[in-house]
Task: inverse folding
């Protein structure tokens, strides 16, 4: 079994390096990009990759690399808030249902079940299409709400498991309030299980945002995001700019790969 | 289990190979059958009745199915169609059309004067095109006798032939126009499959020069990307209204023709909305926008600049000098904004997302406006939302679209901005403008009318009602083996002259 | 029996709630009259058409009217196209179901043997290669796979013509040839996930006592895997596949768009845009029934695979 362990630390390492690398570039992109990502230049339209433009330029003469840095930033921004809001609410629901049980448990979990019965990407697409207000915050709210059940389920299981343990009963005897126990005693111990779930959440959020924006129900035209750019790039796939789609698509793959390897590594480490 | 699966799989593979390799490419197949496939970006909507066509896209397709007594030509005139000629009484009020003999409707019925009378009455009553309805409202009487139809007008109207050309003759006592349209044109309607295709076939009873191809399949690709892919892959033979970026790099199988779209693309402004209520702010936006640069970016410089709500094909009315009324001048724009007290403000440009052309333009403009301190963002919405919020509700700040003319009258373009018009999306209000348009539509002196329209045009420019941009270049990709495509001064596509070489 | 009744009751409740919610959603965002009249609309024309279509009545009246028709199997008439919804759905529904099923079958055919192979060769080169390969495939979104397949096979090698959809009525072979590429796009990431799931599940099963006992009885590792572990390892995989079948249907929406397959996914998106409520309602109901059906089948399958769940 030593072999397996090795492979998994390898997964973890590669995932970590890849994620840190991508996130660093994206963070740099928030302060500095080689060119202004939205600056148009009629003289440099649709150029192939060169030293000046390592990923070339798009049909409005914008530097694709700068746009990828910026667009990946939007994607990550959305993913971050989706996971933050979704996991915060999800953990809260999980804590309430898992720790308190009873009617709260039944009602909240029933709601969660009915949300998850439908594939969440499908639901998100339908809701966003119906709302018809493209923009990153619309995407964030819709996805965050749809992500709640998955976080709730994971944390509920943990709360149920941990609350039976001795040190919790002890804390209760000492008169700690339920809120205190939920936040200070159980949460830190549930963390090793929640961490991979959160990482997977990033993975799913990036994928979901890319699908939404690709379909045109995600971010608006003046906000670059990876999905939005891939959808634009599809126009020019056959007529001159194949590298545009490849660069953007490749970035999505690397971003997702990083998160999924990291999650995989984290999960296996725990075992 | 395994055996069954493997047998199934091999059958599958075999049938795919047979169909994949044994056959010619779809394009060759179509050529052999003398058919063409035309890619379009939008389905036609619920009704195919020529009296209630809701979109320019529907008019474009059904132009091949329906005809009036006269029809517009590629050069911008009107040619006899279902009538062979007409006479006007001396006072200009009575038009007598001589009908062409032996014209057959697509359902086999022969056209008579009764059908024409029915057509005019029914259009006046139920046409959803308000310009046409207004034009036909001036008709006081329609009488048919023998092969003549006599139309009496309340007032003489020099645009009357344009109305006649837009009044498509339909058979009386035929109730299924909505679903199975019947006209007299070079093609007849065959079938439609919702959001998939519309099929027309050649009308072999056509009185004039018969269409060259036997069958036309309009294929619908709602996503612009799918349309381009279909073109690149050879699934369609003709696609119009493409952007320059979409046609560059197309294979040698296609020839790219350039015409004009015949519309006025502008950044339409809501003249009642916040900062935009101030004429100085609107003028500042006009100065801030660099149309030349926008054309270079979106169309490699193709497209004709316009300065008001008239496009160049209206040679009589078009005033080319207005395009230069607001030369690109960032400093002047900033100064004007400062004077108006809006040195910096947010501007949301709401664009129907299904029009790639307009979205591209809006993105370019948003970037240009940043230079003068206007923080513009582009919001794409559904066509339905656009209609509801922008067009009908007028709850918007700015939008980029193109308005075309349903017929060749200046009124079709300019009546929109009369202050109480239901189509006045800019909420433009000018007493002088209203007066000029009212005068133009009530007088018979053609020279004075032209004067009125040109003066009205100038007001739109002076008041900076909208930021006028261009009449867009219309790129048509057509298979190199086809010829005979003609551009019209209207938003139509005549397929009767298109044929294989 | 009681179990089935309970399930059925739950399903009906879900459908009721869902259908009402969809109805109510459109109440907020507007009606199709705008689309139908287009730029020619005047307030009078809007009011007239609304009255003609019965849209001026209250939400509840319209909902219960729709429901009344729905339970008798009448899906109503499209607002936009004024033709029976059933007629509009017909072939499109078949296309989407075929696409989903092809994707599903492909995913199963690829993932189960590979998963077993990987587990049998645990730790060896092949297993490692598969695991890494898998992880990469999982990270490629299906719409990106779709674009790549379309460019490579449609535009460069020209095995099929993108945008030139062939109906099964015209040529079954051409139909399958066209559908195989979207099916692969949907299947690939799912296949990778299923393979990984099965591998993990088999390996976990192999650690269990009963399997170890069979080693002791002299059974080979491969034999033990085949007779014991594989069957039990299928349990979680079946549940996972059920969720997959539901999600593949969702994936179709994007993929149909890219390949221009006339399916209900594309129809759904366009109909939402046009506020064509009867069509949207019908498709939402179909999707919901599909999802519930798939989960139901997975439960029954789980029971047959797992004697412990039979009671």
Result:
């Amino acid at each position: 079994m030593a072999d397996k362990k090795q492979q998994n630390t390898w997964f973890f390492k590669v995932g970590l390096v890849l994620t840190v690398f991508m996130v660093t570039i994206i963070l740099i992109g928030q302060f500095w990009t080689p060119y202004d990502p939205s600056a148009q230049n009629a003289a440099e339209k649709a150029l192939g990759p060169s030293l000046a433009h390592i990923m070339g330029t798009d049909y409005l003469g914008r530097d694709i690399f700068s746009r990828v840095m910026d667009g990946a930033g939007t994607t990550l921004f959305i993913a971050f808030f989706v996971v933050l809001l979704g996991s915060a609410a999800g953990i809260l629901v999980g804590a309430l249902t898992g720790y308190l049980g009873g009617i709260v448990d039944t009602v909240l979990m029933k709601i969660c079940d009915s949300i998850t019965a439908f594939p969440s990407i499908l639901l998100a697409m339908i809701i966003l299409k119906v709302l018809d207000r493209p923009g990153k915050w619309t995407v964030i709210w819709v996805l965050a709400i749809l992500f709640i059940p998955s976080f709730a389920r994971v944390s509920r299981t943990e709360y149920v498991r941990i609350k039976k343990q001795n040190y919790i009963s002890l804390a209760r005897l000492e008169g700690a309030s339920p809120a205190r126990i939920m936040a200070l005693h159980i949460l830190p111990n549930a963390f090793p299980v929640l961490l991979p779930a959160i990482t997977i959440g990033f993975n799913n959020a990036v994928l979901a945002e890319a699908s939404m924006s690709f379909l045109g129900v995600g971010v608006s035209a003046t906000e670059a995001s990876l999905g939005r750019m891939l959808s634009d790039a599809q126009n020019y796939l056959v007529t001159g700019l194949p590298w545009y789609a490849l660069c953007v698509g490749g970035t999505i793959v690397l971003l997702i790969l990083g998160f999924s390897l990291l999650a995989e590594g984290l999960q296996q480490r725990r075992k | 289990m395994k055996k069954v699966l493997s047998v199934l799989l091999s059958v599958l593979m075999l049938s795919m190979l047979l169909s994949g390799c044994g056959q010619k490419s779809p394009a060759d197949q179509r050529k052999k059958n003398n058919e063409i496939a035309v890619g379009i970006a939008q389905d036609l909507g619920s009704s195919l009745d020529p009296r209630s066509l809701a979109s320019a896209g529907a008019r474009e397709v059904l132009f091949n199915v329906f005809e009036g007594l006269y029809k517009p030509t590629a050069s911008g005139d009107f040619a006899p169609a279902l009538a062979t000629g007409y006479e006007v009484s001396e006072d200009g009020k009575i038009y007598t059309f001589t009908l062409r003999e032996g014209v057959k409707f697509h359902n086999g019925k022969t056209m008579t004067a009764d059908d024409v009378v029915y057509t005019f009455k029914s259009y006046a009553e139920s046409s959803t095109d308000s310009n046409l309805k207004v034009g036909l409202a001036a008709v006081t009487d329609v009488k048919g006798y023998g092969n003549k139809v006599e139309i009496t007008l309340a007032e003489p109207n020099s645009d009357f032939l344009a109305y006649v050309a837009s009044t498509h003759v339909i058979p009386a006592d035929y109730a299924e126009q909505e679903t199975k349209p019947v006209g007299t044109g070079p093609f007849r309607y065959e079938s439609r499959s919702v959001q998939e295709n519309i099929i027309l076939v050649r009308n072999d009873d056509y009185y004039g020069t018969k269409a060259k191809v036997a069958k036309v399949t309009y294929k619908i690709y709602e996503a612009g990307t799918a349309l381009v892919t279909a073109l690149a892959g050879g699934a369609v033979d003709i696609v119009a209204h493409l952007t320059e970026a979409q046609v560059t790099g197309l294979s040698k199988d296609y020839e790219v023709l350039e015409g004009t779209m015949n519309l006025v693309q502008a950044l339409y402004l809501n003249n009642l909305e916040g900062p935009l209520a101030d004429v100085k702010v609107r003028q500042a936006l006009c100065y801030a926008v660099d149309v030349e640069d926008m054309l270079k970016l979106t169309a490699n410089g193709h497209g004709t600049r316009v300065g008001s709500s008239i496009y160049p094909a209206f040679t009589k009315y078009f005033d080319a000098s207005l395009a230069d009324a607001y030369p690109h001048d960032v400093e002047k724009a900033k100064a004007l904004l400062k004077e108006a007290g809006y040195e910096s403000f947010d501007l949301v440009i709401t664009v129907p997302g299904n029009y790639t052309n307009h979205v591209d333009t809006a993105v370019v403009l948003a970037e240009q406006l940043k230079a003068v301190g206007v923080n513009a963002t582009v919001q794409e919405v559904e066509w339905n939302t656009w209609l509801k919020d922008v067009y009908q509700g007028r709850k918007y700040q700015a939008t980029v679209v193109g308005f075309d003319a349903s017929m060749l009258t200046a009124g079709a373009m300019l009546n929109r901005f009369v202050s109480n018009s239901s189509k006045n999306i800019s909420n433009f209000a000018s007493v002088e403008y209203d007066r000029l348009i009212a005068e133009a539509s009530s007088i018979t002196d053609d020279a004075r009318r032209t004067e009125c329209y040109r003066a009205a045009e100038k007001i739109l420019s002076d008041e900076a009602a909208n930021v006028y941009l261009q009449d867009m270049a219309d790129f048509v990709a057509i298979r190199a083996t086809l010829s005979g495509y003609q551009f019209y001064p209207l938003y139509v596509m005549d397929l009767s002259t298109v044929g294989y070489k | 029996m009681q179990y089935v009744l309970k399930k059925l009751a739950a399903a009906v409740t879900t459908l009721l709630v869902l259908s009402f919610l969809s109805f109510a959603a459109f109440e907020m965002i507007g009606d199709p009259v705008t689309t139908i009249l287009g730029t020619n609309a005047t307030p009078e024309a809007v009011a007239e058409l609304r009255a003609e279509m019965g849209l001026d009545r209250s939400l509840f009246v319209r909902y219960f009217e729709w429901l009344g028709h729905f339970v008798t199997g009448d899906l109503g008439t499209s607002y936009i196209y004024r033709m029976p919804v059933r007629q509009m759905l017909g072939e499109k529904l078949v296309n989407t179901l075929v696409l989903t099923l092809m994707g599903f079958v492909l995913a199963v055919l690829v993932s189960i043997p590979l998963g077993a192979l990987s587990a049998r060769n645990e730790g060896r080169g092949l297993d490692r290669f598969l695991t890494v390969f898998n992880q990469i495939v999982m990270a490629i979104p299906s719409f990106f796979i779709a674009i790549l397949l379309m460019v490579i096979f449609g535009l460069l090698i020209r095995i099929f013509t993108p945008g030139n959809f062939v109906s099964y009525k015209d040529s079954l072979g051409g139909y399958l040839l066209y559908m195989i590429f979207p099916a692969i796009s949907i299947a690939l990431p799912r296949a990778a996930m299923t393979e990984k799931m099965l591998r993990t599940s088999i390996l976990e099963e192999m650690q269990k006592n009963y399997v170890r006992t069979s080693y002791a009885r002299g059974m080979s590792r491969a034999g033990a895997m085949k007779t014991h572990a594989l069957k039990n390892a299928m349990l979680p995989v079946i549940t996972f596949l059920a969720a997959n079948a539901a999600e593949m249907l969702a994936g179709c929406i994007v993929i149909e768009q890219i390949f221009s397959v006339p399916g209900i996914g594309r129809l759904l998106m366009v109909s939402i845009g046009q506020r064509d409520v009867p069509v949207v309602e019908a498709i939402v109901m179909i999707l919901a029934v599909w999802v519930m059906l798939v989960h139901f089948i997975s439960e029954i399958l789980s029971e047959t695979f797992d004697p412990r769940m039979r009671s």
Summary: Residues 90-262 of chain C form a domain with the MetI-like fold fold (CATH 1.10.3720.10). The radius of gyration of chain C is 24 Å.
